[in-house]
Every structure is written in structure tokens, then in C-alpha cells.
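A favour between colleagues. Tell me how you read the following sequence-structure pair.

===
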Amino acid sequence: MVLINVLFAIAGIFQTVVSQDITVNGIVVPKLKSDFKKGDQPAEWAKGYPKQWGSEDFHYQLNDPIPPERYFQGLITEDEKYLVMFNASHASFMDLGTNLTVSTFALDTPPGYTDGFAVLSAPQGGYDLFRSIVASEAPNTEKTLRMHISSDALRIGEPTSVIGRMGTFDKNGRLSTTNGRIYNFDSPDSYVTLQNASNVYRASFSGDGQYLSASNYQDGSVILWNTTSGERIPLSSWAATHPVATQISPDNKYIADIVDTGDVLIHSLANLTSEPKLLGNVRYDLLSFTIAWSPNGHYLAVNDRGRMRIWKFPEAELVQTWEVEKPSDGGNGNWPEIYWLDGGNKVSWTYRYGRAMYDFDSNLKWWWTPGPWDHSWDDGTVYFFKKGGYQVTVDGDSVVRFWRA
């Protein structure tokens, strides 16, 4: 494990040396060809930025016990009451009002490796902790476990499980799994089976929960299902090219997808047989791109390596472009996530091992980057802790960092 850590750190240093970068306040940042702006005014740095890990206002770390595989995640509950830190063996709840650890408990993980983690507010009160497990005792056995947690952050009862890895949740807490099922955990023995579904990855529910979309590279189509019946809705006119990413807008008006030509396409959910609209393209050869709608469905963000663009709807107009002068083909994972924060007022994305964020109202920008010997196992996550006034980043050293907004 030490050797792997060193290799990750050396990779980060190498990229800094070979890429077209500049230094701002002693911090290395990408040299930009284009930046976000408000009107004609380019974005300005937030006070004290850019920053490097270690200069945060404070942080929390979950160290022990370290699991055999290096898995860590942290998140803030929807009610902003707790910070939850999680590795493959234990979960820890910290009260964000008192900054005290309320509980740390074992997860009784079966043999295998962890592949996903989520905490949702439970309808009956408290929280539901979900995690995906790929079991080692039976090849290809994948399951999602749910553990109920009280409002006081105490574990209640034994976990329940369903077959398939965790996919995505709708607004009512229903879960789609990668094996083509939709579960309601209140009655996990009763589920919807999606018609002709296999390997359902990177799926998305419509805002009203009526539809589920996914990309099926094997048969070259965007797939749409009715989530009540599981019926597959024919979209034959869309199958000219192979889609690799898709997402339904929260306002139930559009489906966005990226196909293997690099084209970004928009389809009307109200007219499923109409031809899609071409927005632009991505650097498909670099195999690193993500799409994400804003919470109200009025904006679509597309992040490919070294470039982040935003289109406004219904005009389908390109309104923002962030682009580095010379993109690197190394660095972060193949699917760097986009995060819309603060009700859509802020958006955050990654480039190499750094994380950028932009505030549309203030026209301010942020940049966080690891130091030369920090470890970046994946792209991490980011939250806006509105009640406390902090940006919150999660990184590969099992650290959750709080930065004053």
C-alpha cells in the first residue's frame, strides 16, 4: 500500500511539471484559455484562493481500523445535522452543531469489497445508510445493504439487503440497481424488473420518478423505462450511435446523452420519437466526461478533460466555458463528477487532482489542490454546508476538510 501511495504522489508531481500551469499565491493552477464570467467580467478568486490541502480551517479524519482495501467516503446528511465518515468496516457520525463524535460502529461487512455508499433521510425518521458490496465468496454476487440509523445516530436492528449494486435513487427513496431492478426498501421482496435490462449503469430517474434512463452501449441506444411497470419504452430513432452517458433533467423535459462520436445530444421527453438536438462535442478520446443538470433543470453542465461548459435551457445556448490552455491526458478517474451546490448557485468539477468551484451570483471562483505528497484515490466529493458557511471537500487521505465560504 505504501508503494501505491508513492506512485500516486509522483504522478501528481509529474503532471504539475509537464502541464501548462501558472502559480497564483504560491499555488499551482491550470493556465486557462477561457474562464467563467458574469456579463463581461471574468471570474475573480475568492479571498485567500487558490488553496492547497492542509490550509483548510479545520478537518476530520477517520483512521482506524484501516480496511484491507482503501475505501473512504464522507458526506453531510440532508438536514445538515451530521457529518458521516465511512470506510469498508466502520461508520462514524459527528454532530456538526457540537463537533463531537456521536457514534462509531462496525458495519459487519461480508467478505468482498465496498463499491458505494449513501445516507438518506428515512421516511419514518432517522437515516438509512446504504452500501454496495461485491462479495468475494460467490463470484459475481453483488448486493446493496440498508442499515437504519436513529435520529441520534445509533444503529437500529440488522441490515436488510437486495441483489445488485446501488445505482441511483428517486425523490421517494426508491433504488435502481445495476442488475435492472427498482426496489422500495420498505418492501424489498416486491420490486420492479426492468424489461430487457442488463448492466444498468449511470442511470437517472426523472424528477417525478416516472422514468428511468440508462445508456446501453451493447445495443447502441438510450434506454427509457416506465418505473411502475418496468416496460421498456421504444426509442429506436436514437440508436444511430452508441451512448455512453445519459441523464434526465429534473424538470422532466429533456434527456441529455453523450455518444461515442463525442456528440452531446438533447432529446425531448415530451416527444420521444423526435430527432435529438446537437449541443456540441466532448474530447471522447480522453475517456473522461460527465453530464449533470442543475437542480431546476435550467442548465446542463458537461465536463470533459480540461474543459467545463454550461448550456442554458430551453434556449440550448452555451453560456459558460472554462477551459485549460493545454489539457493533460493523465490524472483523475475516468468519470469526474459534477456537483451542483447551494440550490444550483454554485457548481464544482475536477481537473487532474484539483477541484474547481464557481459561484454564479458572486462571480467568485475557488481551487483546491493536493500537496505533492497527498494521496488522491479518486475525484472525491464536495458539499456546501450552508448552515455553517463552509465548503466541504472529501479526499483520498480519509480526510473531510472544511473551508470557510
